[in-house]
Amino acid sequence: MSVHIQAQQGDIAETVLLPGDPLRARWIAENFLDNAVQYNNVRGMYGFTGTYKGTPISVQGTGMGVPSISIYAHELINDYGVKQLIRVGSAGAYQKDIKVRDIVLAMAASTNSNINRIHFNQDSFAPVADFELFTRAVSKAGLLDIPLKAGNVLTSDIFYDADPDYYKRWAEYGVLCVEMEAAALYTIAARFGVRALAILTITDHVVTGESIDAVAREKSLKNMVNLALETAINR
Ligand SMILES: O=P(O)(O)O[C@H]1O[C@H](CO)[C@@H](O)[C@H]1O
Ligand SMILES: O=c1cc[nH]c(=O)[nH]1
């Protein structure tokens, strides 16, 4: 058992899907995995392991934000030997040509979090997706006929920004959408030499104000989950 995950060695697969929402983790386990067994309930941050097309896969809620996902990614890699981490998250669109329910692959994750500045003595580390996982996801999306956008995303520490125009500078530089964890996931994966990718579904539109409700965020993101699972097993 690690500090935040109550599992034994061998309970967690080498590939883990990472939704922020623990209830989305349960929905994925119940609807996409065979013979899923719950291995974690510490802090209500559910984790399950089952199989997908015969391959062991785990799904672990991470909570919201850089500190929370950093704890789960660190323990999964260092205490349970996880090698591939695929975030399946929701995001808010920054570009007019991106629509609610579109899927975005985070090639890179800019951030306003200060954690990497502290870690790299105020220098700027560029967190990027694993090339192999990224190219696999692009090719699987083609096979599954799932349209994709891919590019730079913003990992923000702020969900409710006091400045309604904050997004505009990022949007001008081509950032596709905002979420709250990918930069931390990519940085920790780089530190420990494992693979990571963030696959995001647009649930809110920062420019138009459109959004989908909490139940849909938990249960309707099927394309993203199918793409993550097909990318994970690579067959
Ligand atoms: O849907 P999840 O994976 O939680 O991701 C997004 O949703 C949360 C904010 O509502 C943040 O965690 C953000 O990154
Ligand atoms: O971080 C997030 C996630 C979803 N939607 C947003 O607007 N921001």
CATH fold group = Rossmann fold
User: What percent of residues are in strands?
Assistant: 25-35%
Largest sheet: 5 strands, mixed, barrel
Biggest sheet strand order reads: 5-8-7-6-9
Note the run of SSEs as H and E.
EHEEEHEEHHEHEHEHH
The shape, in one word, is globular
Give the class-level CATH name. Alpha Beta
Q: What percentage of residues falls in helices of 4 or more residues?
A: 25-40%
According to DSSP, the number of beta strands is: 9
GO molecular function, one term: uridine phosphorylase activity
Organism: Sinomicrobium oceani
Family: Belongs to the PNP/UDP phosphorylase family.
GO biological process, one term: purine nucleoside catabolic process
What's the topology here?
Layout: E1 15-18, H1 22-32, E2 34-40, E3 47-52, E4 55-60, H2 66-80, E5 84-93, E6 103-111, H3 115-119, H4 131-144, E7 148-155, H5 166-172, E8 177-179, H6 182-192, E9 195-205, H7 214-219, H8 222-233
Parallel strand pairs: 1-4, 1-5, 5-9, 6-7, 7-8
Antiparallel strand pairs: 2-3, 3-4, 5-8, 6-9
Helix pairs in contact: 2-6, 4-8
The structure holds 1-O-phosphono-alpha-D-ribofuranose and uracil (URA).
Uracil (URA) is lined by residues 90-92, 159, 178-180, 203-204, 206.
InterPro entries: DeoD-type, Nucleoside_phosphorylase_CS, Nucleoside_phosphorylase_d, Nucleoside_phosphorylase_sf
Domain Nucleoside phosphorylase: 16-209
GO molecular function: purine-nucleoside phosphorylase activity; uridine phosphorylase activity
